[in-house]
Amino acid sequence: MFLRTSITALLLSQSPLILSQTLTNPVIWQDHPDLDVFRIGHTYYYSSSTFAYSPGAPVLRSFDLANWEAVTHSVPHLNFSPAAAYNLTSNSRAYVKGIWASTLRYRPSSDTFYWLGCVDGGKTYIWSSPGGNARSNGGEVPPETWNWTPRPVIDKCYYDAGLFFDEDDSQVYVVYGNTQIRMAQLSVAANGDLREVRNQLVYTSSDMTLEGARMYKRNGDSPWGPYTRRVLVDRIQGPLTSAGYAHQGGVVDTEDGRWFYVGFLDAYPGGRIPVVAPMTWGGDGWPTVVRDGGNGWGRTYPIPVNTTRKVNVLGPRVDEFKGVKLGPEWEWNHNPDDGKWALNNGLVLRTATVTGDLFAARNTLTHRIVGPKSRGTFRIDVGAMRDGDRAGAVLFRDKAAYIGLHKTVDSASIVMVDNLNLVEGSWTTSSTGRVAATGPTVTGEIWLRIQADITPAFGTSIGRQVIFSYSTDGRTFTNLGPAFAMSNSWRYFTGYRYGVFNFATKALGGEIKVKSFAMELV
Ligand SMILES: *[C@@H]1O[C@H](CO)[C@@H](O)[C@H](O)[C@H]1NC(C)=O
Ligand SMILES: *[C@@H]1O[C@H](CO)[C@@H](O)[C@H](O)[C@H]1NC(C)=O
Fold first, then answer.
1. Residue 120 above 90 pLDDT?
2. Which atom of ligand 1 is closest in space to residue 77's alpha carbon?
3. 17-55 confidence digits (pLDDT tens)
4. Which of 18, 19, 20, 21 to mutate to test the pocket of ligand 2 (most atoms within 8 A of CB)?
5. Quick one: pLDDT at residue 19?
6. pLDDT tens for residues 291-315?
7. How confident is the model over 217-240, as pLDDT tens digits?
8. Residue 306: CB within 6 Å of ligand 2?
């Protein structure tokens, strides 16, 4: 034991000397779609979509474009309309609504981050946070500085928006639209609120759909155009099979003037995952993406930036819920009932909804799955469950399955439940599940494990497999129920997630304590 500890310490102290000089795609093997990427000083930021998960619009940070960590969420609670749908307290729910194709940028003169996104086809919501003097700190923001507050809503949909602050950042622009690309100019009030002052059509595509617009300025061109078009990326093979072609995203430069394209792959069942490639500028002023030897999108490239600055890389991890705040890797299914959960050397989940439908139950806590193959293990104390309560570890999406406990007056049996389904399109519940297998009864602690293979299978009929298992000692695991085949459909947009839930079918009052979550590659 002592020997192992000292070897670990030795490796750790050496690690700054063996920094990787390679960028490997995908740079994050987790669902982070609709990305918007930008740089402040030596720091890169990345914003992505979360639909009805809350908090929403996670912000990631990197110093080299290859290693990314989660730092905050721009939308701490979904303040959209109708509120009851986002709170999961009405029959109308917000599945596949909420946050998609939004945008995040930093305004240096007021040291403020702004996020904005069109929600539910009608209005554009705006949140902002102070930057902790990021402009003078190479873009770094002290963690305690993040403090997102809502700004007045703009009563217009900036569809697939790209926010842009000009050099003189009193001028704010939003480029947006689908095929008809429009430019909105916003004014910034003394208190930081944004308001539209001008709006103009700047480009119409007659032959192809254009969306996910972003705006960058080189050589002092006018934001109002005129614009001409050139295709940068069109069905470039790789770097993964059955994951579509890299698309959408954005471009970003380094401090020394080199450029990179960050796009994403449709890597279902895992969702949409980001890939990076270098970009060069031709003498004609147009960029080209650098391909690998086979003329494809590289699986690897030289690292964009050599740095000794470290991040807490997204991926395998253990969370013992020790702090006073949930880590930024966690998101609830819809807004939680904050009166029904607590952190107390573990995560206490009190039942928050009386329902027979997991999709209607509040306070299911979710975590992105790391690919290509991983397992998520929740260690849970189930001693304070009440008659009728259902709790467990769920493989969460519109076609879901779980391993959990069904509590009765007398006992709590381990069950594996599949066939929890939403209807594609209306996202109403068509099936609340079928008990596929029943295991022994449990009284105190239980380890519930989901092992998921999210190797991309997009566009195929391959159902990637998921195995559910449990343990009463944390070491020996027993499989329960049939393997579950995941859906590769894109229509729910978000990929599969690991989740933990606790809901009542009879009456509130019960609780579970989640003592840890471990996500490991297998
Ligand atoms: C939704 O939840 C928020 C935050 O808990 C609360 O302030 C608001 O009153 C709720 N609204 C509805 C309609 O449920
Ligand atoms: C990073 O360091 C390696 C090894 O010294 C070097 O080959 C490479 O060019 C450097 N890359 C950048 C972007 O500076």
1. no
2. 4
3. 456 899 999 999 999 999 999 999 999 999 999 999 999
4. 21
5. 63
6. 999 999 999 999 999 999 999 999 9
7. 888 888 999 999 999 999 999 999
8. yes
- Return the ligand 1 atom nearest residue 336 CA: 5
CA-86 nearest atom, ligand 1: 1
Q: What angle do CA 70, 72, 77 make, to 5 degrees?
A: 130
CATH number of 317-521: 2.60.120.200
Tell me the three state secondary structure of residue 14. helix
| Short-list 367, 363, 364, 439, CA closest to 405 | 439
> What is the phi-psi region of residue 507: left when phi exceeds 0, alpha when psi lies from -120 to 50, beta otherwise?
beta
Q: How far apart are the CA of 39 and the centre of ligand 2, in A? A: 20
Task: Kindly report the protein residue whose alpha carbon is nearest to atom 6 of ligand 2.
Answer: 21
For ligand 1, atom 3: residue with the closest CA: 87
Q: Judge contact between 115 and 127, C-beta under 8 A.
A: yes
CATH superfamily membership of 2-302? Glycosyl hydrolase domain; family 43 (2.115.10.20)
Alpha carbon distance 262, 45 (integer Å): 12
- Give me the residue spans of the domains in the chain: 2-302, 317-521
Q: Taking the CB of residue 150, how many other CB atoms lie within 10 A of it?
A: 13
Tokens of 225: 């155009």
Based on the number of CB atoms within 10 Å of its own CB, is 207 exposed (0-12), middle (13-18) or buried (19 or more)? exposed
Which one, of 505, 511, 499, 504, lies nearest residue 340 by Cα?
A: 511
